[in-house]
Amino acid sequence: MATITPDTHIDIGHNDDPNSNYLTSSHGFLSWAFTLDHKRIGVMYLVGIFSSFFLGGIMALLLRLHLLMPNGLFPDWLVTHDTYNQLFTLHGAIMTFLFIIPSIPAALGNFVLPLMVGAKDVAFPRMNLASFHLWVLGGIFFLIALVTTRLDTGWTFYTPYSIQTQTNVIAATIGAFILGFSSIFTGLNFIVTVNTMRPPGMSWFKMPLFMWAIYATAIIQILATPVLGITLLLLAAERFLQIGIFNPALGGDPVLFQHFFWFYSHPAVYIMILPAMGIISELMSVYSRKPIFGYTFIAYSSIAIALLGFLVWGHHMFVSGQSPMTAVIFSGLTFSVSIPSAIKVFNWLATMYKGNINLATPMCYALSFIFLFSIGGLTGLFLGALATDIHLHDTYFVVAHFHYVMMGGTVIAFVGGLYHWWPKMFGVMYNEMYGRLFCLVVFIGFNLTFFPQFIMGSRGMPRRYATYVPEYQIFHQLSTIGAIVLGLGMVGAVVVLIVSLFNGRKAPANPWGAATLEWTCTSPPPYYNFEHAPHVDSPYDFSDLKYDPQVGGFVKDPNAANKPKSDSHH
């Protein structure tokens, strides 16, 4: 068997130019649409996912503008209550299924994971391409629902209304069903890649924590997503065939749909947040110039979150009529799942302690994440406690909690990770000043949008209503102003990155001084990622890296052999 050493040259295929990278070896549209290169697939996901984010964000802004006045800002002939219902339904469905679930695993995970394991691609490149094509196909079905008879069930498709409504539930459920297959393909690919393609020397506890997070996420994707698929098929069968599964008029049970739906959709919350936590683990270590504190605890906590996430779905149903004992058990389990999340937060804070902190744009997003995610997590305790949840259920308190975790957590981490890996992906540096400025704008706009919703929710303002009594107007107005600021901040953050593609200075191989393998190849990576098999060391040992002003980035320190090695696991 041939052995691979750090000096082994890896054949990079039939490109005439051995220095070509995945960006410059282009031959038209088809070379992208049918590429098997994980990097191109990651970039295509990135474009598609941000397009979905933009569409969902426009809907959110329209909703918030409408709520500026107690009886609605827009006249009835322009925005009826039915139109309002359709807007918030499609906002939720697009943001959940098309944007936030695939965002980090499909875009950043696809690009970064093979580089992190020192491989030239994922385990199954054709399955990877199929997952992207399925994502596009699923998105098309959501667009069909958007432009035909719309959708007004709420993003959860609750029965019995979803059986009776005349809107296009079928197109949306088919879209979500197809997107589920995309999610399963991605998860399966990542599990096999991590299990079988790690290089010699990369044991489980020498893997970067982002890989641990993606691995735990992939477990949830494979185990939970089929439940949603079957549920949506049953819903379609109920609409077409009237077989009496969820329809109470035919002896069915609408609450059964809720059990099926949340058995997937609560683990799906961790599909959304676990990869974000993996990104924060990377950012905290790199920009604090310190080995991650409590590596083993953070790694195991990812797996613990993945497994405990399957046991807490009933906390969405405290007011559905389930037995008091069941509610108490689900409440207790809900509190237990907060423990591994808290372990991560405290370990990130401990990593920063006495670190040489670099407040680059990605670190600003990481600090924002810790603040916003902590608020989201702590307010979840009120919803997990039976006595307070009865009052807060279906109010704006739930909306604020959900957005603090999902947008304040996942989206902020996603943008932070994008800024972190952008030089590696495209080989250009962005404007740091504007990057930090728009991070601040996003942070202010986010809190102004969602914090007032905690107050009006605790005072009884129900969610999903198109009108409200005047006493809540000040909170809605603050929230709408915040949404506009947040929208401008997000657009600005994306523009900074896009502008860098045209006038950004060339990125060095390792601009941040990170120690994981993806920073050992050029920026952007060559066609097959690595000219030589990379040498595996601890992913959080920065002792042998020094800044070279001529390169504008970090390089191996030739004197590092004489220095004591730092231990990345303690």
Automatic annotation (TrEMBL):
<keyword id="KW-1133">Transmembrane helix</keyword>
<dbReference type="InterPro" id="IPR023616">
    <property type="entry name" value="Cyt_c_oxase-like_su1_dom"/>
</dbReference>
<feature type="region of interest" description="Disordered">
    <location>
        <begin position="551"/>
        <end position="570"/>
    </location>
</feature>
<feature type="transmembrane region" description="Helical">
    <location>
        <begin position="43"/>
        <end position="67"/>
    </location>
</feature>
<feature type="transmembrane region" description="Helical">
    <location>
        <begin position="364"/>
        <end position="387"/>
    </location>
</feature>
<feature type="transmembrane region" description="Helical">
    <location>
        <begin position="475"/>
        <end position="502"/>
    </location>
</feature>
<dbReference type="GO" id="GO:0004129">
    <property type="term" value="F:cytochrome-c oxidase activity"/>
</dbReference>
<feature type="transmembrane region" description="Helical">
    <location>
        <begin position="87"/>
        <end position="117"/>
    </location>
</feature>
<feature type="transmembrane region" description="Helical">
    <location>
        <begin position="212"/>
        <end position="236"/>
    </location>
</feature>
<dbReference type="GO" id="GO:0015990">
    <property type="term" value="P:electron transport coupled proton transport"/>
</dbReference>
<feature type="transmembrane region" description="Helical">
    <location>
        <begin position="129"/>
        <end position="149"/>
    </location>
</feature>
<dbReference type="InterPro" id="IPR023615">
    <property type="entry name" value="Cyt_c_Oxase_su1_BS"/>
</dbReference>
<feature type="transmembrane region" description="Helical">
    <location>
        <begin position="292"/>
        <end position="313"/>
    </location>
</feature>
<dbReference type="GO" id="GO:0020037">
    <property type="term" value="F:heme binding"/>
</dbReference>
<keyword id="KW-0349">Heme</keyword>
<keyword id="KW-0479">Metal-binding</keyword>
<dbReference type="Pfam" id="PF00115">
    <property type="entry name" value="COX1"/>
</dbReference>
<keyword id="KW-0679">Respiratory chain</keyword>
<dbReference type="GO" id="GO:0016020">
    <property type="term" value="C:membrane"/>
</dbReference>
<keyword id="KW-0408">Iron</keyword>
<feature type="transmembrane region" description="Helical">
    <location>
        <begin position="325"/>
        <end position="343"/>
    </location>
</feature>
<dbReference type="GO" id="GO:0009060">
    <property type="term" value="P:aerobic respiration"/>
</dbReference>
<keyword id="KW-0813">Transport</keyword>
<feature type="domain" description="Cytochrome oxidase subunit I profile">
    <location>
        <begin position="32"/>
        <end position="537"/>
    </location>
</feature>
<dbReference type="InterPro" id="IPR036927">
    <property type="entry name" value="Cyt_c_oxase-like_su1_sf"/>
</dbReference>
<feature type="transmembrane region" description="Helical">
    <location>
        <begin position="434"/>
        <end position="455"/>
    </location>
</feature>
<dbReference type="InterPro" id="IPR000883">
    <property type="entry name" value="Cyt_C_Oxase_1"/>
</dbReference>
<feature type="transmembrane region" description="Helical">
    <location>
        <begin position="169"/>
        <end position="192"/>
    </location>
</feature>
<feature type="transmembrane region" description="Helical">
    <location>
        <begin position="402"/>
        <end position="422"/>
    </location>
</feature>
<dbReference type="GO" id="GO:0022904">
    <property type="term" value="P:respiratory electron transport chain"/>
</dbReference>
<protein>
    <submittedName>
        <fullName>Cytochrome c oxidase subunit I</fullName>
    </submittedName>
</protein>
<comment type="similarity">
    <text>Belongs to the heme-copper respiratory oxidase family.</text>
</comment>
<keyword id="KW-0249">Electron transport</keyword>
<keyword id="KW-0472">Membrane</keyword>
<keyword id="KW-0812">Transmembrane</keyword>
<feature type="transmembrane region" description="Helical">
    <location>
        <begin position="256"/>
        <end position="280"/>
    </location>
</feature>
